[in-house]
C-alpha cells in the first residue's frame, strides 16, 4: 500500500510539472529555416517543411496550435528588438515601415471636385488668405472673436437701429434684419447642397419654388400645390379656382379597412388568397378564354370566305372564255357572246 501511494504521488507531481512547463514554455524557438518577418504589418512567413508523419501522429488541432504558438513567439521576439518607450505606464514599440504591399479592400477615394467658387478663384488667380481669429471691437474697446458667440461688431446686439429714408416708418427694422439673416443662412445652405449635387452629378434637392430668375409653368403649379397641401387638413378645405385643373402626379391616398365592425370583406379576401395559394392549377378566366375562341373562329371563317371568293372568280373567268369560243361556232344571232348587247330604242 505504501509503494502504491508513493507511485501515485510521484505521478501527480510529474503531471503537475508537465502542465506547468506547458504553461511556461521557453521564449526561444528553434527552426531549420529562419522566418521572414514584416514587423510593420505584424507578418511572419514560415517556409519550413511540415512533416506529414508528425501531422498524422498528433491530432490536427494540437499540431496547428503548437505551430501557431511557436511562430507567434518568434514574431513577438522580433517586436521586442525594436526601440521601445513608456507612455502612461505602458511600454510601446515603434513599428518600422511596411515592406509587404497589401491589396486594398476598396479603390482609393477620388479627389473632391472643386466648387464653383474654387473654380472662379483659380481662374482669376485669387489666393486664399488666412484671417486672424481676433479683431478689435471699437464699441467694447477689446479684442474679440471675428465670428460666433460674443463676436466683434455684433449688429444683432444693437438696441437702436436707424430707419432709412426710403423705408416704411412703421416697419420693424429688427425683424427685417433677422429675416435677412435667415435668408442668407438658407441661401448658403442651398449653395452647399448645390455643390454636393454637382459633385455627385445629381439633381439639386428642393421642394417648391427654388431661387431662380424665371419659373416655369410646372414649377409654379407645383409650388401652388405644395402651399395648398401645407395645412392641417392637407388641402381638403382649400378653395379652388373656377377652371383650376387637378395637380399632376399627386398620388393616391391609401384606403385601409376599418379596425372594428364587419370583417366579412377581410375574411373573403383572406380565403381567396389561401385558395389561390393552395391550388396547383392556375386560375382559368372563362370569359377571356371564350372570347379568344370566338375571335379565332371568326378569323378562320373570314379566311375561308376569302379563299372561296378567290376560287369563284377564277372559275367564272374560265367559263366565260369557253362560252365565247362556242359563240364563234354557233348561229349568227349568238355569235360574239362576249360583245355588247344592243339596247332598246330610247334607253341607254
Tell me about this structure.
- 45% of the residues lie in helices and 6% in strands.
- With 348 residues, the chain is mainly alpha-helical.
- The strands form 3 sheets. A two-stranded antiparallel sheet has the order 1-2.
- It is flat and about 110 Å long.
- Mean pLDDT is 79; it is low at 317-348.
Draw up the topology in text.
Layout: H1 2-23, E1 36-38, E2 43-45, H2 52-57, H3 60-80, E3 84-87, E4 90-93, H4 116-124, E5 134-137, E6 142-145, H5 173-200, H6 217-228, H7 264-278, H8 286-329
Antiparallel strand pairs: 1-2, 3-4, 5-6
Briefly, what is this?
This protein is mainly alpha-helical and 348 residues long.
Question: What key phrases describe this protein's structure?
Answer:
single chain, mainly alpha, 348 residues, disordered C terminus, two-stranded antiparallel sheet
Mean pLDDT: 79
C-alpha Rg, in Å?
A: 50 Å
C-alpha end-to-end distance:
156 Å
Element-by-element helix/strand order: HEEHHEEHEEHHHH
Strand order in space, largest sheet:
1-2
The number of helical runs is 8
Major sheet: size, sense and barrel closure? 2 strands, antiparallel
Helix content: 40-55%
Task: State the total count of DSSP E strands.
Answer: 6
> Which residues sit in consecutive blocks of at least 5 with pLDDT less than 50?
317-348
**Shape annotation:** flat
Strand content: 5-15%
Structural class: mainly alpha
Amino acid at each position: 500500500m505504501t509503494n502504491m501511494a508513493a507511485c501515485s504521488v510521484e505521478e501527480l507531481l510529474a503531471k503537475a510539472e508537465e502542465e506547468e512547463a506547458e504553461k511556461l514554455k521557453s521564449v526561444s524557438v528553434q527552426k531549420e529555416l529562419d522566418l521572414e518577418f514584416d514587423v510593420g504589418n505584424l507578418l511572419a512567413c514560415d517556409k519550413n517543411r511540415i512533416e506529414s508523419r508528425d501531422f498524422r501522429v498528433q491530432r490536427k488541432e494540437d499540431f496547428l496550435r503548437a505551430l501557431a504558438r511557436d511562430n507567434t513567439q518568434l514574431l513577438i521576439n522580433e517586436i521586442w528588438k525594436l526601440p521601445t518607450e513608456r507612455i502612461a505606464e505602458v511600454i510601446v514599440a515603434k513599428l518600422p515601415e511596411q515592406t509587404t504591399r497589401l491589396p486594398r479592400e476598396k479603390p482609393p477615394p477620388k479627389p473632391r471636385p472643386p466648387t464653383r467658387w474654387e473654380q472662379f478663384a483659380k481662374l482669376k488667380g485669387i489666393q486664399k488668405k488666412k484671417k486672424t481669429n481676433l479683431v478689435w471691437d471699437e464699441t467694447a474697446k477689446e479684442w474679440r472673436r471675428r465670428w460666433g458667440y460674443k463676436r466683434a461688431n455684433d449688429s444683432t446686439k444693437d438696441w437702436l437701429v436707424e430707419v432709412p429714408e426710403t423705408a416704411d416708418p412703421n416697419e420693424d427694422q429688427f425683424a427685417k434684419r433677422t429675416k435677412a439673416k435667415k435668408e442668407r443662412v438658407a441661401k448658403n445652405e442651398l449653395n452647399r447642397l448645390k455643390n454636393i449635387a454637382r459633385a455627385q452629378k445629381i439633381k439639386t434637392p428642393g421642394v417648391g419654388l427654388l431661387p431662380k430668375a424665371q419659373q416655369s409653368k410646372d414649377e409654379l403649379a407645383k409650388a401652388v400645390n405644395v402651399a395648398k397641401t401645407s395645412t392641417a387638413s392637407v388641402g381638403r378645405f382649400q378653395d379652388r379656382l373656377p377652371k383650376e385643373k387637378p395637380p399632376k402626379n399627386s398620388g393616391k391616398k391609401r384606403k385601409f379597412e376599418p379596425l372594428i365592425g364587419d370583417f366579412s370583406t377581410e375574411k373573403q379576401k383572406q380565403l381567396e388568397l389561401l385558395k389561390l395559394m393552395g391550388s396547383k392549377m392556375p386560375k382559368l378566366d372563362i370569359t377571356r378564354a371564350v372570347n379568344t375562341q370566338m375571335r379565332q373562329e371568326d378569323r378562320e371563317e373570314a379566311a375561308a370566305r376569302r379563299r372561296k371568293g378567290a376560287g369563284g372568280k377564277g372559275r367564272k373567268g374560265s367559263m366565260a372564255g369557253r362560252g365565247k369560243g362556242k359563240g364563234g361556232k354557233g348561229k349568227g344571232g349568238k355569235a360574239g357572246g362576249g360583245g355588247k348587247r344592243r339596247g332598246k330604242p330610247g334607253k341607254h
